[in-house]
Amino acid sequence: MPDAARPPRHVLILGGTTEARRLAATLAPEPAGAPEHAPAPECALRVTTSLAGRVAAPRLPAGEVRIGGFGGPEGLARWLREHAVDALIDATHPFADTISHNAALAAATAHVPLLAVRRPGWVPGPGDTWHQVTSLDEAAAALPALGTRVFLTTGRMGLAHFAHLTDLWFLVRSVDAPEPPHPPRMEVLLDRGPFTVEGERALLRAHRIDVLVTKDSGAAATAAKLTAAREAGAPVVVVRRPPVPDGVPVAEGPGEAAEWVRGLFSAAHSH
Ligand code: NAP
Fold first, then answer.
1. Is residue 124 part of a domain?
2. Do 143 and 228 have their domain in common?
3. Domain count, the chain
4. Containing domain of residue 140, as a range?
C-alpha cells in the first residue's frame, strides 16, 4: 500500500528524446505506461521531464514538464534540492554533452542518484562505406573528397561548421529552420522522424545525393537513411558520440531505466 504520510518520490528526467518520452509514459502515474515496466505499487512517483526549449513545438511527455536551461550545474543542483528530487535520469540525446556533464556534477553535489539512458549506437554492416569522425569539423574536412551533393542530418545547430564549403551543395534536414551561418548552397527540408526507407531512398534520388552526414544517434526512427545510402552506394560520414561522464551508470533503454527506478525505490522503501 502507498505510504500516505510520505510525498511521492520525485524523478527528474532530462529529456528531448524518444527514450525520455517513453520513460515518462512508463513512470508517470497517468496515462499508464507499459505495465510490465511500471514501478512497484508502493512506490508512488512524481515524474517531471525537463526540455531545453530548442524546438518551437516539442512533443510533450506524460507527467509534469519544465522547459529551459537550469543555469549550469549549480542551477541544476539547486533545482534538484528545491524540488526534492529523489532520482535524476539523463535521457538526453547522446550528443547533448554539456547537459550530461552538468547532470553528473549536479547529482554529485546534491547527492541524488543518477542514471544515463543511452540507446546503442549504429554499427556498419556489409555494403556500408562509413567514414567515422569525432567532430563536425572533421566531418566537414572529410566531405570534399567524398562527394559534391551532401545530405546533412546533423541538426541545424552545427551548420556553421560547414559554412566554408562553398563548392558543395547541401540538403539540410532539421526540425526547425536553421539560421546563418550556413553553407551558401543549400536547400532546407523541415521534417522530423520517423523516416521510412522508401522516403529516404526517394529523397536521395530526387536530390542526386552522393554523400550523407549523420551523427551516430542510434535511433531506429532515423536509421532508414543508412539503408538508403547503402543501397545507393553513397558513403556516410558518421560523427561518433562523446563518452558518458565517468562513473555514471548507463541503461540502454526506457525499460531498463524503469527497472533502475523501481530497484532504487523498493530498496529504499524496505529500509
Ligand atoms: P547541450 O549542448 O548538452 O546543453 C546545452 C545547454 O542546454 C545545457 O547546459 C542546459 O542549459 C541546456 N539543456 C540541454 N538539455 C536540457 C534539458 N533536457 N533540460 C533543460 N536544459 C537543457 O544540449 P543540446 O545538444 O543543445 O541539446 C538540447 C536538447 O535537445 C537536449 O534536451 C537533447 O536531448 C535534445 N536533442 C539534442 C540533439 C543533439 O544532436 N545534440 C538531438 C536531438 C535532441 P543550462 O546549463 O542553463 O542548464
1. no
2. yes
3. 2
4. 130-239
Give per-residue pLDDT as tens, 10-27.
Answer: 999 999 999 999 999 999
Residue (of 178, 119, 131, 130) closest to 154 by Cα position = 178
For residue 211 and ligand 1, the question of a CB distance below 6 A is answered with no
Q: How far is the CA of 144 from the centre of ligand 1 (A)?
A: 30
Residue nearest to atom 26 of ligand 1 (CA): 96
CA of 98 to the centre of ligand 1 (A): 7
| Whether residue 270 has pLDDT greater than 90 | no
Instruction: Give yes or no: residues 164 and 152 share one domain.
Output: yes
* pLDDT higher than threshold 50 for residue 115: yes
132-183 pLDDT, tens digit per residue, is 999 999 999 999 999 999 999 999 999 999 999 999 999 999 999 999 999 9
Set of cell numbers at residue 140? 566537414
Distance between CA atoms of residues 203 and 31, nearest Å: 37
- Residues 38, 106: one domain? yes
Beta strands at 149-152 and 236-239: parallel, antiparallel or unpaired: unpaired
